[in-house]
């Protein structure tokens, strides 16, 4: 059963049609590369799945159930997590404190509660070990590389035991070595049966890690096929319009 299914989803903002009849199925543990030029509708689609926007038409289904998200918390409650391009990390906090930001563990009795740093640091260490990341719970985020920061953001999504993780340009503006680290993090999520939607302009990264590729152009889905049956040249043609559909 598909973990996520969009059925003829459209979204308009006044006279602007951002998405037009987009249907999409994502299976558990599948990595889907979502590509398209600026203004193609990628961000709108992701924001609908993440609960930021309701669709104007069409339905969203999680594991066969029709759902209606009114806010991002509704999507998180259904197992959908998102890692934004800016990561939304606090530089002055440790890796573990960022993993638990807004979800802190406490201990104590009655009205007197204190933060349970020991439990948070222990669980954060387990998450980094699962992701095979060298990031340590007590490391300060401001001293981290781009790849380590991605590990913190991805570990934060793992706290909620997600069904699907949406990743917005995770390899933008980081080094080649750090890109390899982030792609390995995506592979770890797949190994745990978590579906990933990878939004990226970087063709080599998508072809390195995705099982399937979906291309949007001017709000319309123009391709949805296994990555093994496509090529960077075909995708470039689909994005630019040199190739109509595939």
UniProtKB/TrEMBL annotation:
> What Gene3D superfamilies would the database entry show?
P-loop containing nucleotide triphosphate hydrolases
Q: Name one GO molecular function term.
A: ATP binding
Parts of the chain that traverse the membrane:
none
List UniProt keywords, sorted A-Z.
ATP-binding, Cell membrane, Membrane, Nucleotide-binding, Repeat, Sugar transport, Transport
Q: Which InterPro entries would you find in this protein's record?
A: AAA+_ATPase, ABC_carbohydrate_import_ATPase, ABC_transporter-like_ATP-bd, P-loop_NTPase
Q: Determine if tRNA processing is one of this entry's keywords.
A: no
The record's listing under SMART domains reads: AAA
Q: Return the protein name.
A: ATP-binding cassette domain-containing protein
- Domain (ABC transporter) spans 4-243
